[in-house]
Amino acid sequence: MARTRVIFFATVMIGLAIALPLAALFYGAWQLSVREEQDRLSEIAGSTLARTQLVYQEVVQTLHQSDAAGLAACSQDHIARMRALTLSNISVEELGYFQQRRLKCTSWGVVEGEVRQPRAHFTTREGVRLNLHVRPIVSTGNVMIAMQAGAHNALVDPARLVDVLVDPSLSLTVATRDGQIMAQRHAPDPDLLARVLARDGAGREEDSFYAVARAGDWVAVATEPRTQTLQHLRREQLLLLPFALLLTLIMIGGIVWVSRRRLSPRGELAIAVGKREFVVHYQPVIHLPTGACVGAEALVRWRRPDGSLVRPDLFIPLAEDSGLIKPITDQVIDSVLDELGPTLAADATMHVAINLCADDIRTGRAVRVIARKLEGKELQAGQLLLEATERGFIDVEAARTTIGQARAAGHSLAIDDFGTGYSSLQYLQSLPLDALKIDKSFVETIGLDSATSSVTDHIISMARALGLLLIAEGVETQAQADYLRARGVDFAQGWLFAKAMPAADFLAFHQQRRAQFGACPSRIQRRWPADEQDREI
Q1: Residues facing 116 on adjacent strands
Q2: Which domains occur in the chain, in start order?
Q3: 181-185 β-sheet, strand order
Q4: CB 152 within 8 A of CB 95
Q5: Whose C-alpha in 1, 156, 230, 483 is 20 to 30 A from the C-alpha of 514?
Q6: What span, in angstroms and rounded, lies between the C-alpha atoms of 525 and 534?
Q7: What is the reported pTM?
């Protein structure tokens, strides 16, 4: 089930790894295109505004020069002067002279007939009056803008104000500060323009982008249809596509790497640790002389979400190599105290054996964990027998320190699977251990004519000589039990008596065994008294 979920999750994440960069590509490209377009429109609007201000300043200067000439009105010199100023300023199409609000002469010559001065539509802050819709009387032609200062006015072609190089799709508008249109190039929608003139900066309005620039008496507006931005969008997409593809490949690679780790045995084990999928089964320990049940060995099992159990020999070595054995040990301790704690507190003769890994023997970590978890509980520390394989005692000095801490806390200690690893009398002679467990591989040779059949007798003799209690593992036949009992082995466990079972079944077995054989006459005790322990350690 967990594997299926990981595969499903990885598939979904790969889909997202493909979709998200592409979505980010389109979104990022659109944002870049919009920003680029708005920046471009802002630049164009600013350039148009600057162009308008320049034309206005040139015209005002020309008008001032006309008034300052001091020539007789409409004389040949006056007309020649106005003609020269017109020719020298490309923004001015025609200059005129007004007297008593009537046009008397222009840069073309004396005006015949009566031409009255046009009404001003707008007056600048400098007092220059503007008429925005004037058609020349003498030269005729397009509608002009009339700018008047003093007695002279100048006609300006509106196209001069928007004479900026732009795309044909782009619209330009120049208006007065109160919104009156002065000049346009590719006129935009009037309703759109009316809304935009009331705003500042760049933005989007319906299907168009706009930019507004303001300064003094003038406003410049640049607008462009949204469709024009799509051309920039395609360019940005092509630029961003390699980055999106690279990001997709990196994300897919990361997902595959993580998924493979999670689908690996180590990854699955780490998930199981996080979800606390480990349960404890208890294998009864029997007192061979009487048949009474003195306790149990706590054996961890990995229960998968589908209910199946994984054998310890399939995951314990991996857990030890990966460092995951420590949290598993902590879960075992929690389970023992939760499931058997009340029974242990009520029966001081009962014990439970807990297996420690080599690193816990080296560092003493598990001893401290147990001490912390026993705080406030009524059971005795001596009811928890700590077991470790020979591998845990390779570093003799570190093991001696941990054993000292464990014994000071009240625990007894046993060496497990003796003879199957780095066997050495050093462990038995120099370390204050209390019990030795005979491995199943030696027990099953009892009564057989094999090369190792005599090893069991040697182990028993050696343990007896050192005063160690003996616990035989893997007892499956009555002949094996009789053989061990005859040679003074104290305790045994194996399928002859019962398989490892859940806590509820073990408690029922313990009660049934107690009713049949009576209370336990003894349990695993320390071999080393406290005073001798202090002296030896």
Answers
A1: 102
A2: 1-249 (no CATH), 281-532 (3.20.20.450)
A3: 181-185, 171-176, 218-225, 208-215, 201-205
A4: yes
A5: 483
A6: 17
A7: 0.56
